[in-house]
Amino acid sequence: RAAAAPGASARADADGPKPLRGWAEILEEFGRNNQGAAAMLSTEKAFADASGRIVIRYSKEVTRMLVTRPDTLNALCAAASSVLGRRIAPTELIFEKTDPQPEGRDGADSLGGELGALAGRK
User: Fold this and answer.
1) What's the CA gap between 35 and 70, in Å, rounded?
2) At residue 6, does pLDDT exceed 50?
3) Could you tell me which of 72, 86, 13 has the C-alpha nearest to residue 47?
4) What was the pLDDT predicted at 17?
5) d(CA 87, CA 98)
6) Could you tell me which of 47, 60, 63, 115 has the fewest CB atoms within 10 Å of its CB?
7) Are 80 and 88 in contact (CB under 8 A)?
8) What is the rounded CA–CA span in Å between residue 63 and residue 21?
9) Would you call 56 exposed, middle or buried from its count of C-beta atoms within 10 A (0-12, 13-18, 19+)?
10) pLDDT digits (tens, 9 = 90+) for 25-72
11) Which of these, 99, 94, 51, lies nearest to 76 by C-alpha position?
12) Mapping DSSP to helix (H, G, I), strand (E, B) and coil, where does residue 90 land?
């Protein structure tokens, strides 16, 4: 996990990262010439940090390995620059590893299973 930038406010950390506006549009434009990489990123989330960098949280190492190849990374930066209306350099893309959800499970499935188990007990 990437460390906070020096001088970042504690309030920004407490509020958490803000979802990146335009992420779907960035992936759409990026996918015109990078369909495989865009498909892999489509399941990931992107956020804007306090300094305007783009934080991409990925669950599979292969996604990071594919997207950070120089040609692919430059294409992603070009798509982000076009959609966001400002130049995005490769150094402004931060990749953070997250824990993957078990196959076919998400928080709702887990909660439903727990509630069902509780309902069965009397």
Assistant:
1) 16
2) no
3) 13
4) 76
5) 27
6) 115
7) yes
8) 21
9) buried
10) 999 999 999 999 999 999 999 999 989 899 999 999 999 999 999 999
11) 94
12) helix
